[in-house]
């Protein structure tokens, strides 16, 4: 009987572990620092998570489709630099769509390689990570990019504006989350993404155009990255070439933390949003407790490991198991 | 036999899953040197009972005895150490590893510093493979083997230890007749060494050929045990499904319509050559042959999964250009593939979503998938095919093997195809549902569909077909009408005997 209860607790932890760990974290931080649970701080966390969150929404599609996207960080730098540059050259009204077009072209290229040529997504997007970085540096000539007339432009609304007291980045994140959640959960395309990621062969045998579906997931990811780049650029009206550096791992952490399996076929947009918030609050909590920001890198890694382990444990129904 | 201690005994086993009482107070015993059949409908609880025995699942209640000593099976390796070996219904091999590595997985022979002793490994493996008389060796990559040969690897695994009891869960579902003979020899050998054997199968001929006793489960409950020698198919069927069945040959004669599908001079590399045949509306054409005769490859070509090197495919007299399943489906061609786990189902998806996947684009209300339309289709085919599941939300991977197969069949029947190709449609399906599926196939033809049935089971082919195409080594040897065909002539045709006479 005793053995049974410990196993049940283990099973419960395995299934709900992320939530449990999150609640413990929150309680711990709240006790350690009374600024943690304040409206200001909570809003602040959500706002600063919005860029990461927007990217994570797109990567959710890629991961459920059974692939990885490690290029989103450097692609976001690209979008940011490009839109800032085009802002001055073409004006924001033309510059923004042009930037979306260029970012989507990159996404289409990746989607073509992974979807139609069936190349391994890890290799392709890891390569693109550095290729796009090179592209960004070539584009900018290695210099930081700044908008010349920071006062006289309306471009700041995406990153700095607010509507009815809610910051625009949060609104964009929320809107995109709702739309993409519907796409994934309710449309035939969403269903096909799950099928392709769950069992690509069976999807093919069911008349699902696997290559096109994978291609589309990368387009969606690129669209989200472009949006993230837009918010980023608009927030500071200037940027380094490396703003997005390292974000691919945080994005992936958030997606897995939300419960999408790296093997593909499972996860939801809602869960990813939860994952993003958990990550945001944990990082914020660590800062408030007084840890240096670079500790976050280690913490992010620990969280990924924890999430992957719990993901596997949940499938087994217990934390430690002799069978895989 | 009665004074002996059972090799294995299960007492009052209860096992529940969310929404399902899979085993309800089941007791069961196997004597040493006995082949004990476990029978029951799809979802009756056979595999679950054996998983409890094999340490894969823990029962909610009940006890396990080995030679009358109470024990607990914590894991499959633990069960193996206690002398209980389990050969699974669904294959569980590592595709990328060699045959030898798969057979000795977790127990590879070692040299100093923990290095694998490859020489010894291959030697031991080849010795086991020799007793099984198979056409591959220890170094072959498992992913390159046919399903049947993978099954043999699974069996070879059991022979690495000196077992007290071996459980075979539907071992012959994908074996050829020749391979079955080898398997039955292995079983006879184990039996003579005093090993207790549990044998799960839906195939009556086998059950009556090799087993000593038959225990029957129904809806998770124990229904009784019969002496094989003192019973007959009818009594077993009655116990299993509560009624008798008609399993006669197809005698009815029907008028067929126009030619629906025509294949002319189709070739695809070495897989098959110069294949021509016609299928009329309202007709069931059976493709009979050994595993590897090229039947599946022809089906895959018609379904757009392979490009032929030569030849034409015509539908209603029009030549088709089919380059993908999407094209095939658009022309009203459906294929129920032979490998349900690999090709038929997304195991992590729920029952309904699996069933409606090929037509999900058409089941929409505005931009969204219509829940109601999907559920209506699911409900219709669940009833038609008697699929046992607590509801459409159940993950397909949690269904019993036979019920999974029914989901695949439902998926393609619900497309209302012009041409329906079914590849081994009743693999793993219980006798009751099998005859229902056969009737369904006949009915579909009656409604004007053109149907191709690929099967390695002669009774099945004889039962459903109006015409039978016999294949051997990628060529069509002969066509028979239902009236003229005899078992002997069919066997000759598919083993190439006739061709040698002619040549
Ligand atoms: N992991 C699981 N989760 C939920 N339900 C399960 C699980 N495993 C089995 N079941 C259910 O338990 C019942 C018995 O399944 P089991 O696989 O033992 O049937 P079976 O007799 O082997 O059938 P078949 O002849 O089709 O192989 C079924 O209703 C099945 O859906
Ligand atoms: Mg079973």
Account of the protein in words:
- The complex is a heterodimer of chains A (324) and B (503).
- By secondary structure, chain A is mostly helical.
- Chain A has 13 helices and 4 strands.
- Chain A has one domain (41-315): ABC transporter involved in vitamin B12 uptake, BtuC, CATH 1.10.3470.
- Chain A has helices at residues 2-32, 39-64, 72-90, 92-116, 121-140, 157-160, 168-186, 188-198, 200-205, 210-236, 247-257, 269-289, 295-316, and strands at 145-146, 162-163, 166-167, 238-239.
- Chain A has a two-stranded antiparallel ribbon with strand order 1-4.
- The radius of gyration of chain A is 20 Å and the shape is globular.
- The longest helix of chain B has 16 residues, at 177-192.
- Helix content of chain B is 33%, strand content 25%.
- In chain B, a hairpin with a 2-residue loop joins strand 1 and strand 2 (20-30).
- Chain B is built from 18 helices and 22 strands.
- Chain B has 2 domains: 8-241, 3-Layer(aba) Sandwich (Rossmann fold), CATH 3.40.50; 250-332 and 419-432 and 446-503, Rossmann fold (3-Layer(aba) Sandwich).
- The A-B interface holds A 182, 186-188, 191-192, 194-195, 198-199, 201-209, 265-266, 322-323 and B 56, 74-77, 305, 324-326, 328-329, 335, 337, 342-349, 353, 357-358, 360-361, 363-364, 367-369, 411.
- Magnesium ion binds at residues 46-47, 89, 169, 400-401 of chain B.
